[in-house]
Specification:
Number of helices: 4
Largest sheet: 9 strands, antiparallel
Strand content: 15-25%
Order of helices and strands: HEEEEEEEHEEEEHH
Helix content: 10-25%
CATH topology of one domain: Jelly Rolls
Length: about 325
């Protein structure tokens, strides 16, 4: 084995000994299916106790009269943009909202280990963009300390909502032109039954939509699964730092991405296996046989949306 390849093997082994897979934690959210299923069986979250790692801080939640008393699990939802008195969905004490909290973490206590088939969230398309999470990670635990993934992260697409939305309608909200197009804000369910997990504690790790930075919910469901889910195996990775294991989870993802970039950079520098006889006379590579080429850099592409939602996050217009 050549020196460069021995170096890669050593790097891989060192990360494995630290309990980190050399393959990065999946950054491609899984699809929850082409349509949003109805609730299947018992809603385990109904009237269950839960804790928010970060207290709701958006709009109506700034007042003491909106202190949370279990609103996300009381079974009451508002199926319209405003109630009969004209108060908007996000400003009501029945809803919980977060602005610039990344991620939002909610941990439910189901009272005992239960089989889990899926989750549901009730949110809305506001005049300023989506108030549902862009990505959801579900974690499970038996002791509220050691959490494991129930499934790969789930992306939330407009077509997966109930009722479904077209992308152009969502973009109109992001562009602040819903009224000009004669479209009213609407409420929607996101539901998935793609889980096969078990646990007493269920942590929802929610990332806001990049166009708004806001999440607003007025109900959360946890759908009961089949009895054989109690025997379902869990991933080896355990996340024990932070509420719902979120700090460990974020660190694990960051380390996995870093290792992936390092491995890709090394492979780029090493290149394909060479025949010394064919490449006689070529310049000798630098230390370790890796050469002296600049290391490639990678980074996420950030898409700028029209308009600046920042001025709407704490004081939405028209309220």
């Amino acid at each position: 084995m050549s020196k460069p390849h021995r170096w890669i093997a050593a790097l891989s082994l060192s990360w494995l000994l630290l309990g980190v897979s050399c393959a990065p934690l999946s950054t491609e959210p899984a699809s929850s299916g082409s349509s949003t299923p109805a609730v299947r069986g018992v809603n385990l979250a109904a009237h269950a106790k839960y804790e928010c790692a970060s207290p709701p801080n958006y709009w109506g939640w700034k007042g003491p009269e909106h202190k949370d008393t279990g609103r996300l699990a009381d079974g009451r939802i508002l199926e319209s943009w405003a109630d009969p008195e004209g108060k908007h969905f996000y400003a009501l004490p029945s809803a919980a909202g977060w602005s610039e909290v990344k991620p939002v973490v909610i941990v439910f206590d189901l009272g005992m280990a239960r089989s889990i088939a899926g989750i549901g969230l009730h949110s809305l398309l506001s005049p300023w963009g989506p108030y549902w999470p862009a990505e959801i990670t579900v974690m499970v635990s038996d002791d509220n300390t050691h959490f494991q993934l129930a499934a790969p992260p789930l992306s939330v697409a407009p077509a997966q909502l109930s009722p479904p939305l077209r992308d152009d309608v969502v973009q109109a909200a992001i562009d602040r032109v819903l009224p000009q197009k004669g479209i009213e804000p609407t409420t929607h369910w996101y539901r998935t039954d793609q889980l096969a997990a078990r646990g007493r504690y269920v942590a929802l790790i929610l990332m806001p939509h990049p166009s708004t930075g806001v999440i607003v919910l007025d109900e959360v469901e946890i759908h009961e699964g089949r009895a054989d889910f109690q025997k379902a195996s869990r991933p080896k990775q355990v996340f024990a730092e932070g509420k719902g294991g979120v700090r460990s989870y974020q660190l694990y993802g960051a380390m996995g991405e870093r290792v992936s970039r390092d491995m890709a950079a090394l492979k780029e520098k090493i290149g394909p296996k060479r025949n010394p006889a064919r490449h006689a006379g070529e310049p000798v590579a630098g230390p370790g046989g890796l050469g002296n080429r600049a290391r490639p850099t990678t980074g996420a592409v950030h898409k700028e949306f029209p308009g600046d939602p920042a001025d709407q996050r704490s004081s939405p217009p028209g309220v």
